[in-house]
Design goal:
The protein has 20 helices and ten strands. By secondary structure, the protein is an alpha/beta fold. Helix 2 crosses helix 4 and helix 17 runs antiparallel to helix 18. The radius of gyration is 26 Å and the shape is globular.
Amino acid sequence: MSTSTNTVPSVLWSRLSEFIAEKMGLYFPPARWADLRRGIESMAKEFNFSDPTACIDWLLKGPLSKAQILALAGHLTVGETYFFREKRTFEVLADSVLPELIRLRRSRGRRALRLWSAACCTGEEPYSLAILLHQLIPDLADWNVTIMATDINGKFLRKAVAGVYGEWSFRESPPGFRERYFHHAGNGQYEIAPGIKKLVTFAQVNLVEDFYPTLATDTNAMDVIFCRNVLMYFTPAQAARAVHNLRCALIEEGWLAVSPCEASQTLFSRFAPASFPGAILYQKREGKGQIAPPLTPPVWNEAAPVAMLAPEMPVFEMPPAEEPSQPITPPNPLAVATTLYQQGRYAEAVETLLNSMATRDAPNLKAFSLLARALANQGELAGALNWCDRWVAADKLDASGHYLRAVVLQELGDRNQSRRSLQRATYLRPDLVLAHFALGNLARADGRSDEADKHFANALGLLRDCQPNDVLPESDGLTAGRLIEIISSITAVGTSP
């Protein structure tokens, strides 16, 4: 088949590379067309095409489903990684970043950490993070630790979930590392210890097309995000968009780690760079750059006329009687706060809402919801729970309040109360898809696979009544079609190869 790929005209490779850049952000200029050819050969073989040209024609004619796009990504991405790859970054994390985070959380009485391996490949990176936390926190069992690991490649994720690795994955591991954290699985393979494996949650995420951060997929309020050796494969526009979203997913003063070859003053201009010997990390700091030039605050009544200047007074004539001026409607605080929230300016959104609510007597449930979300995205979970409680107290029959309360409780590590709030939400509103999805995730995290399957089936049944592009209530932009794919990938990813 490699011979036949040479007969594909250059114009077709060019069109295909543009298509892949648009759909996945992966950048294949002519210098990388050899990699593209190898991926298409593999794709054509899996989908039983007679030659690569037929496969390319099929891809370009589209439209492709998300599942087909993810399958294509599986043939175009490279799974080259190993434990503690780019060791200096992990040393900085172990010596400087994590000890300070741990100290601060202990001093504030909230033992919780959230980390995200945003391009986790076959799992060595997130498991390395889990092992590092195990070494740094003696009472780790008393902490609420989230290590989210995502990748676009389903095959990689299935291997990551299995947690079984060969000698090549340990090529830079310190002495005794494999013996302490793995057990021999035969045939030169080693399986990671259950206590480490359970710290990591895997999910399929497309960093280019998927919406994040969002509470619905647990991609918010991260302390540390690793996104290494993936941005360099994106187009400049797609890389900038991904970095923007990753910044929004971090709490204030959270850390972003990228590969040294991806360090860029332009791409990370809205971060504060922190230089260490042999490594550069980027920190999100208040006032460091703007997400975008501030948008003009939306005016609640855009049809209100603007007062005109009075004409010059004629000589020797009395001026005409002035018509009373019509005041311009001031910006609506909730609309302004919503704009700020969508830009990732959560602290400003909270301030805007709190200032406006100080002058109001009646509760505003939409403001309660936005306050809870903005605070949760900053990692201020106690404050977020307070506003959820006020929401539920103001309207006990609003299922959305119970759902959001459940999500915050889950991030706080209180799974039992979270489950009760979700059950209340589905009782009040049986068609609240995200509540069924959240119940499934809770059951899966607790190892109750049969119960999880039941909740996911309920969610899928409701999603079939939606259009693929319908944005789901309480989702921050997640569509029905994408949630169907997420639920399908959970089953696939959760199955070892």
